[in-house]
Amino acid sequence: QVQLVESGGGLVQSGGSLRLSCVASGSNFNLYVMAWYRQAAGKQRELVASIISGGKTNYADSVKGRFTIFRNNTKKTVYLQMNSLKPEDTAVYYCHNPTRGIWGQGTLVTVSS
């Protein structure tokens, strides 16, 4: 059973940076597509970024140029580096394995103005 555990959320001022981490258990992590989603209060969950096993990435328009998704297959970890954070980035961020349909528990990111 694959499990995902996120960490790295917190409170940061506008313009600041945070790095989220998501550690996966189980095998074959290197074969999985991995993604980060976020859900702000009162809004639907939305895709932030994704990365395939070969490293190709995809980003939501709202975070392009500010966020970077990358992975370390040896550590079974996917990261989301978030720079130039804005108050509208405030949300619970979830790690997702679309291949297995598994979600992490979420980590809260709060950006103050």
Structure characteristics:
single chain, 113 residues, mainly beta, four-stranded antiparallel β-sheet, globular
Describe this structure in words.
The chain has 113 residues and is an all-beta fold. It contains no helices and 11 strands. The strands form 2 sheets. Strands 2, 4, 5, 6, 9, 10 and 11 form a 7-stranded mixed beta sheet that branches. Strand 9 (91-97) and strand 10 (102-103) form a beta hairpin. The radius of gyration is 13 Å and the shape is globular. It starts with a strand and ends with a strand. The mean pLDDT is 95.
Judged by helices, strands and strand pairing, the structural class is: mainly beta
Order of helices and strands: EEEEEEEEEEE
Largest sheet: 7 strands, mixed
Give the overall silhouette: globular
Number of helices: 0
Oligomeric state of this protein: single chain
Radius of gyration: 13 Å
Given as residue ranges, the uncertain stretches (5+ residues, pLDDT < 50) are: none
Question: What amount of the residues lies in strands?
Answer: over 45%
Which percent range fits the helix content?
Answer: under 10%
Query: Mean pLDDT, nearest integer?
Result: 95
Compute the separation of the termini in Å. Answer: 40 Å
What's the total count of β strands?
11
SSE topology:
Blueprint: E1 4-7, E2 10-13, E3 18-24, E4 34-39, E5 46-51, E6 57-59, E7 67-72, E8 77-82, E9 91-97, E10 102-103, E11 107-112
Parallel strand pairs: 2-11
Antiparallel strand pairs: 1-3, 3-8, 4-5, 4-9, 5-6, 7-8, 9-10, 9-11
